[in-house]
Amino acid sequence: MSTNSAFVLSIALGQNLNSLKSKQEKKMSPKENDILVETRKNGVTTLRMNRPKQLNGWTQPMMLAIKLAFKRLGTDSETKVAILTGSDPYYCAGVNFASLPLMHPQKLHDFMLKSNAALFEAFIDFPKPLMVAANGPAIGACVTSATLCDAIIASEKATFSTPFARLAVPPEGCSSVHFERIMGAENAQRMLGPEGWIPTAQEALKAGIVHQVVPHDNLMNSAQARAEQWVKEGHVRNFANNINIEEYRAVNMRESKDLADAFVSVPFIDGQYKFLKSKGKTQASNTFWFLKVTRPLWSKLLK
Hints:
This protein is of the alpha/beta class. The chain is 53% helix and 12% strand. It starts with a helix and ends in a 5-residue tail after the last helix.
């Protein structure tokens, strides 16, 4: 590779290592109680994603905060049931790919694989009853992760979108297997395939994605009441009893590898560029445009 090419690559991928290290340390050290608002009542711990202006999107700090909270609550004797919800108006707008750290292409690939696998393992391996209270639109990974919980209670304002085909990424969160099992092959294909079906709360209830739909203002009271009933009944983690955990871990690893491969591919980069441009996010879209046009250079660094 020529000196000029290496310089261009350095600009494209953020190869100033000192700067990268400080940025990553800053991103990976979230103030958990700020990002996730935690409340406790009668054996039920509720975690509320608290970035409403960013639609509770899953940045690296948000995902790390969720994983840390799950790990802590998993061994917390006072927590019998956990609820995950969001600050209105969205439950969660999904993973914010533009927030991912830029690094050497192979390191980025490995980072994507490991971080994606770890995120969904946190849901799969959580040892206590886990409920999602979907207070509004849910997109992508926050939908697939929610289906790995014991129950989803949805506000009438909730919708469920998994636009993987449009964004040129493969299914994740075990959805390549789990969606068909919970809602049948036809509905799974409608959501995961090119149609990109976005069911409303009532449609999701009928399809088998959610377990209860309630008026928006009653969502958290309904979720709390159901969770307290679980505590009273000695409810155990039903999700883990109804699936083969090792199978789902293997599916998660396979999907995470496929996602990491896709993340450094032209279709994904181009899809992100077009998506961000359509949203008026010029700076972020330009980053993906630059990655696309310089891919012939940096792709040589992939194994």
